[in-house]
C-alpha cells in the first residue's frame, strides 16, 4: 500500500546496522531487531535499512536479508530499504527478492531505490562487474521493476516469480535534484537523504512538489525527509551523546571509518578536528535535531512548517542502546505533541 498525505506527520526509522565498538555483527543485528520491536510498540510507521558495502562500521550490505530478519521478528511495522542501490543489481533479482519478502510479510514491505553506489568506486566496480561510470538508465530499470511486479506481466517470457502481483510500494530516494525530477515524473513517493546531504534538499523538494504527475499508485506528492535525531532529558546530555555522531562523520572526511565510538566530553571536539573538518562535518549534519524535548520540538516544528514534508525518518547514531531507545521514545512524544497541535486535538 502506497502512503497517503495526512495532516498528521508520520515518523519512521532508518537503520544502517551501525556496528558499535566492542560489538560483533551478530550483536549489531540483535540491536536492530530490539530497536525495531520497540518502535513498533511506539507507533513508528516503518523501519528501513540502507545498502552499504565495504564499511567496517556498517553491517547492512545484505539489505534484503536484514529486512527479512526484522520483518520476521516484528508483527505490524513496515520494513524496507532506504535503499537498495539499484545499479548494483539486476531488476529481476530485486523483484524476486522483494516479491519473496512481500509474500512472506504481506502489506509490510517497502522498496526504496537509489542510484548511488553505496560504497567506494573500486568496490562498486567489483559489485557491478563494470566501470562505475558506465552509462546507466535508472528510470528504465525502475519501470522494469514495476513491470515485474505487475499482474500484466504474466504472459511475458521473463517473469518475477515470486514477485508478480505482490504489493511492494516503490519509493525513489535521493540526495540531489536529479531524483526529484524522476520521482515527480513517475508519480512515486520521494525520500530525501537530508541527514547527510543538506545542500540540495530545499530545491529538490520544491521540484518534486511542483513537477509531480499523478500516477496509478499516488495521486498527490508524498515526501519523506531523513534527519539525524538525538533526544535526551537535557540539552547537555544530548550534546554529549552526539559526539559519537560527529566522530563517525569525521571518519568520512578522513577516510578512517571505524565502529561507532562511545561519547566523550564535548570539549574534546575542538582537539579532534581541524576548523575545516569541523565546518564540513557540521555542514553535512545541518539537518540534525539534537537536544531535549523542548529544543527538538521547536526546531522540528520550524522544519515542518518550512518544508511541508509528510513523514520524518529518524537516523540515530547513539552508542548506548538504552539511550537510543530513550531518544526514540522522546521523539515519538515530540511528534505526537506536534500532531496534536496540527489537528487541533
From TrEMBL:
Major enzyme class: oxidoreductase
InterPro entries: Bact_Lucif_Oxidored (IPR050766), CmoO-like (IPR019949), Luciferase-like_dom (IPR011251), Luciferase-like_sf (IPR036661)
Domain Luciferase-like: 10-247
Gene Ontology MF annotations: oxidoreductase activity
UniProt keyword Glycosyltransferase, yes or no: no
Keyword annotations of the record: Oxidoreductase
Keyword Oxidoreductase found: yes
Source organism, top-level taxon: Bacteria
UniProt EC number: 1.-.-.-
Family per similarity comment: To bacterial alkanal monooxygenase alpha and beta chains.
NCBIfam families in UniProt: oxido_grp_1
The protein, known as: LLM class flavin-dependent oxidoreductase
Organism the protein comes from: Niabella digestorum
Origin organism lineage: Bacteria, Pseudomonadati, Bacteroidota, Chitinophagia, Chitinophagales
